[in-house]
Amino acid sequence: MKFRRIVPTFALGLLLALIAGRVDTDLAAEETKLEKRKAFLKKMLEKKNKPQTDAAPGSDAKPYDPGSPPPRPKFMATAALAALVDAGIDGKLEAAKVAPSVRTDDAEFLRRAFLDIAGVIPTPDRVVRFLDSTEKDKRAKLIEELIAHPGFGRRMADVYGHLLFPVDSDNRFVRKEPLTKWLAESFNKGDTWNAIVTELMTAVGTQEDRPATTYTMANRGVDKLTDSCTKVFLGIQMQCAQCHNHPFAEWKQKEYWGMSQFYMKVSTGNPKAALKGGAAAEVKEIDSPNRKQNPLPEAAKPTTPKFLGGDEVKLPTNGSWRSVLAEWTTSRDNPYFAKSMTNRIWSLYFGRGIVNPVDDMLEDRPNTHPELLMALSKEFAASGFDIKHMVRGICNSEAYQRSSKPTSANKADVALWSHQAMKVLTPEQLFDSLATSSKFDDMPAPKGKIAGQPKGPPQSPRDRFVLFFQSSEDAKATEYETGIPQTLRLMNAARLTASPVVLAEINKAGLSREKAIERLYLGTVSRRPTADEVKKMLEYADKQSDLKTAYGDILWALTNSSEFAMNR
User: Fold this and answer.
1) Is the separation of the CB atoms in 56 and 81 below 8 Å?
2) What pTM does this model have?
3) Quick check: is 109 in a domain?
4) H or E element: which one contains 566?
5) H-only helix segments in 174-212
6) Does residue 23 form part of some domain?
7) What is the DSSP letter of 534?
8) 45-96 pLDDT, tens digit each
9) How far, in Å, CA of 496 to CA of 501, rounded?
10) Pairing of strands 423-424, 284-285
11) Domain housing 168
């Protein structure tokens, strides 16, 4: 980009950043119904252990059937689940004498729901249809639309792909794509969480025959499988107990190696040889523990199999030991399984968990809403671990639909959800949203080697983009960690500066300057520009040599603005 283009564009970018950060000072005070909701919460908590009689409308849950389990109890309707969420949040706000922010406007809700549920911003036409709709239940219908959207499964696969397939030197020759594709299909079909986890924990065979075996290949070794199982499926980190007994840690070596015994008969073959044309790597259950086929770390301690926090287990001589662990892990009686996933789902839609960190839910961790978390966990288990049911209830709540704009009365609140958190777009959300706003199918890989890029299978442009923009493992969803290299890459991406497809569409449609500017706003920040913004953009366009240059600069500024990079 030449200097003559940088100066006006940079100035415009600063202007838009200020506009994006504007505060609506004339928010009308919204009368709350805290007393009514508090009473409702009390009623719901009294009933939380009873089976519900009305199933969630549109639910496509399919309970996992390991044999002949008892029939799944019917569960709450969406409205009741959303009201339970609101009552739990509003009760705490009332007790703390903190007034919540008002309900967010339609444009902010639309963009938030699209990014949270489908992982991508809406198209301009979809924005217009939603904003112009007068249907009273259009938000509930939008949520149903997005839960059925192919992006729902892809978004969940993106989240769990990172958790289940941590990139390291031991799995650099394992293909990740079979796992993420299978996850996306499973989440989209409405497969229940216990069914998904059972398949991940017990699958045998090759990646081609059983894509879920990718998880075991990506976590080769008894210790890595133990670490992953407890962290991802139970919300407990135990890796520190592998080598020693920490005086202040809740879990000791005996518990760690008791859990690890269930993985002692796992063999994963040689993914590196398979990648180079050898026999396909295959996950097997060998006849008996064998250090050659399943090497153990030096810290390994011989002990008896034991469920975490439970009793010792006598394992069968023949058969899969992992299946025994999977049955316990996914049980409705497991004190960690439903609670862990409920807390993680909550964090995806609110920016943080009720208990934090979400993968280290120790008893002494601060729990802002213990009654609510317990009630939601019980409902999740009662639903047969139906993820879509939980997402549907959370997103229909008023707590989720609150404005992200704090008031003078609640700006100090960070734990009561008086206003919605502003979340940073994940690398996947950013790539897919850029592809939507600028209409390209991929993005060229940056020149040179990317730090941390693994050897092995080829990566797609999206994968390379994600790796380049990936934050640290413990990054918070509400904190912006992208550095100068990532910022410069976006600022100098020619397809974003003047997307030929977008500009050609504007030209072909013969839009007026005002409508063209509106189209650029709708396609990037998912709202119509204010009158003041239109005026400023027109003034900028008047100073340029041609409209194509002006529109390209406006598109560049919008896609590089904080409003585009954040989910409000």
Assistant:
1) yes
2) 0.83
3) no
4) strand 566-567
5) 177-189, 193-202
6) no
7) H
8) 444 334 333 333 333 333 334 344 445 556 799 999 999 999 999 999 999 9
9) 11
10) unpaired
11) 151-329
